[in-house]
Design a protein that fits this description.
Blueprint: E1 2-9, E2 22-33, E3 36-46, E4 57-59, E5 67-68, E6 76-80, E7 86-90, E8 99-109, E9 114-122, E10 140-148, E11 159-160, E12 165-169, E13 174-177, E14 180-181, E15 187-193, E16 213-214, E17 220-223, E18 232-247, E19 250-266, E20 272-276, E21 285-287, E22 293-302, E23 306-313, E24 323-329, E25 333-341, E26 352-360, E27 365-374, H1 378-381, E28 403-405, E29 412-418, E30 423-429, E31 433-435, E32 442-448, E33 454-458
Parallel strand pairs: 1-23, 6-8, 12-19, 21-27
Antiparallel strand pairs: 2-3, 3-8, 4-5, 4-9, 6-7, 9-10, 10-19, 11-14, 13-17, 15-18, 16-17, 18-19, 20-22, 22-25, 23-26, 24-25, 26-27, 28-31, 29-30, 29-32, 32-33
């Protein structure tokens, strides 16, 4: 058996006229100084289409003019400088047939503080997506939000630790980490959401296949013993939500990034079977306080003579005395032991994510097994999973003709959701009232993180 090994240190890090091409993507950002940010759109495209990424609309969410993104060649990064000139450079081609990645970046100076909603919309999604009705006629839309204020310093979007195009094998349990890292050490939570058709509406006719689940703490996506009759492309979206600690026992939502991704279900011979020791809790987490160490063992079986194997973790950047592994190969299996030595100088409130990636190149079967390493008390890190609180002051009047009031609105990120689950609007309020004049008459859900949802009627 030939096994390729690698260890990776994660650095913070309308009328349809187009052919189908867009398969996955996300919007990221990083603060340069004050209100000036670099914004990047990353898109994964189908290379069998002649249409390239671009000519969609980027909205900055600050009342400035939307920007039409120029066409970007496959496996190319394009940057629009403040001088108005475009520069390009090549991106390493993906090790996947028929798939390319492209990105576009620019600098933007935001005109306002408060909630910023970045969005990008372009025709079209790939044709034939199994869980989207008539996907060829559905627009492709991305959204990222963050709070901009004068206290922001070097803030950025979460950094992805996974490839947004994933492979699953018919009849085999599927595991994949959708986890991310945060340079600001904000607490991250993960939620499966519907892909977007535009900034306010989810894709019509979309459904999540039966059995698909996402762990909100670790970001582990599971799809047990896939027995779907329809092989092909399945589209999903994960919202990575950032929370900032505001006091010893409370957190405030300050941003989120929706990653549009795909799982390709194929009928391939053989699969990957992984067994592990039982040190993890129900959230696949373990605690390794400073001054202690742990060895985590995996046994991996793959029915092929070549296996690519890698470990993904920030911990690898602290050297082999902190993070190391060893492997013993047998005829059909290999035993992997991961060694972690915790120290005071690496302790932090957020957990470290460790991903074990196993891939069989001959049939593109791939699995990732992820676990969380806490260097401080796990109980202190799970406060976001406490039961929701009730409003101290229920929003009023209800029904309303256009204005809702509540003392609980102040300094809160608020979402208005229709009863069918579609997002209608988002607000960051610094006062005790919310103006809803543009909302159509009907019943809606008002959602504030950490509070019981409130149903109201707009007349």
């Amino acid at each position: 058996m030939r096994i390729v090994l690698s260890i990776i240190f994660v650095c913070l890090l309308s009328t349809i006229t187009h052919a189908t091409h867009l398969r996955a993507g996300y919007i990221s950002y990083r603060q340069i100084q004050g209100s000036k940010f670099e914004i990047t759109i990353t898109a994964y495209t189908n290379t069998t289409s002649e249409v390239l990424f671009g000519e969609g609309v980027l909205d900055f969410g600050d009342d400035s003019e939307p920007f039409v993104v120029p066409v970007v060649s496959a496996n190319t990064q394009t940057f629009l400088g403040e001088d108005g000139f475009l520069t390009t450079k090549s991106i390493s081609e993906l090790d996947r047939e028929g798939l390319a990645v492209s990105s576009f970046s620019l600098i933007h100076d935001f005109r306002k503080e408060g909630l910023i909603v970045l969005s990008y919309t372009e025709p079209n999604r790939n044709e034939g997506i199994v869980n989207i009705d008539r996907s060829v006629n559905v627009t492709f839309s991305l959204k990222t939000t963050f709070l901009l204020n004068s206290s922001n310093t070097n803030v950025s979007a979460p950094g992805l630790l996974f490839d947004p195009i994933l492979d699953a094998s018919f009849g085999i349990d599927f595991f994949q980490s959708l986890s991310a890292v945060d340079s600001n050490d904000y607490k991250l939570r993960y939620e499966l959401v519907a892909p977007l058709a535009n900034v306010l509406e989810s894709v019509p006719g979309y459904y999540v296949p039966e059995g698909v689940k996402l762990n909100p703490l670790s970001g582990l996506l599971t799809w047990p013993a896939i027995d779907q009759n329809n092989l092909g492309e399945y589209t999903f979206a994960v919202e990575v939500i950032q929370f900032e600690q505001t006091s010893e026992d409370s957190f405030s939502r300050i941003g989120s990034m929706i990653i549009d991704f795909q799982v390709l279900l194929v009928d391939s011979e053989g699969g990957i079977i992984v067994s592990e020791d039982s040190k993890f809790d129900e959230n696949r987490a373990l605690q390794i306080p400073p001054g202690t160490s742990e060895t985590i063992n995996f046994t991996i079986q793959a029915n092929d003579d070549q296996v690519d194997f890698s470990i993904v973790s920030e911990l690898a950047g602290f050297g082999t005395e902190t993070f190391d592994y060893e492997i013993n190969m047998n005829d059909e299996t290999f035993d992997l032991a991961i060694f972690i030595n915790s120290r005071e100088d690496i302790a932090r409130k957020n957990p470290y994510v460790v991903g074990v990636n196993v891939r069989v190149p001959s049939n593109s079967v791939e699995q990732q097994y992820v676990f969380l390493v806490y260097t401080v008390s796990i109980e202190d890190n799970l406060v976001l999973s406490l039961p929701d609180q009730s409003f101290r002051q229920l929003p009023y009047p209800n029904p309303t003709q256009g204005i809702l009031k509540s003392a609980d609105f102040i300094d809160q990120f608020i979402q208005i959701i229709a009863l069918d689950g579609s997002l209608k609007s988002e607000y960051y309020l610094q006062s005790d009232q919310m103006v809803l004049n543009d909302l159509k008459p009907g019943s809606y859900i008002l959602s504030i993180s950490g509070m019981v949802p409130f149903i109201f009627i707009k007349e």
